[in-house]
Amino acid sequence: MRGITGFGGAMLMTPPLGILLGPVPAVVISLGLEAIAALIMVPAVHKDLPLRQFSLLIVPACLAIPVGTQVLVGVDAVLARRMIGAMVVISSLAMLTGLRYAREAPSSMSVAIGSLAGVLLGATGIGAPPVVLFLLSGPSPIQNTRAILTVFISATSLIGFISLYMSGAVTTRLVAGTAALAACYLGTTWLGMKAFTRLTDRGVRTIALCMMLAMGGTALLI
After folding, report:
1. Which residue ranges make up each domain of the chain?
2. pLDDT tens-digit profile of 204-221?
């Protein structure tokens, strides 16, 4: 999903990992893998990146990530898992409705969306939903949207991982687990990038959102 759409990796990984390992390990592993995926994804999309729009999203997001991290570290495990699931369900349902706006959004809205994404990323490991909905609902060409999402998720995942490390949530065991999964994640991300060129935008988005909806619903119910 990350390779095909530019987003969706953490959304798919975090709920089941939260059930298996707990919310903090799930976020650490998800953010680590998303940051590693940047090694092959960012070079492939940098030509399509609109720098001004990207800056209005990434700067406030980075400033807000530490706030969300403190929420995650101090929250109850069950509540954190349900927060993760709720974010996935709400964002997936919103995007499946196909809401769009015709005119370019003001800069203040981009800043607000970026800030919200940063807090959510630090707290749940899933900061992309508000940015994804915001960009997919607008008039920008799909290649520009995918480029922004790819670089945004890569950058915020790396910063979120560093923030968790500074708070003491990253252990040697979690780093080893992330490293063990990295080769598989990079390989399938590369396959997704190849598949993107053969699939329609509507088909890819529908499949990805339905999968995320199922994963988020599972995390809420268990």
Report:
1. 2-221
2. 778 777 877 887 787 787
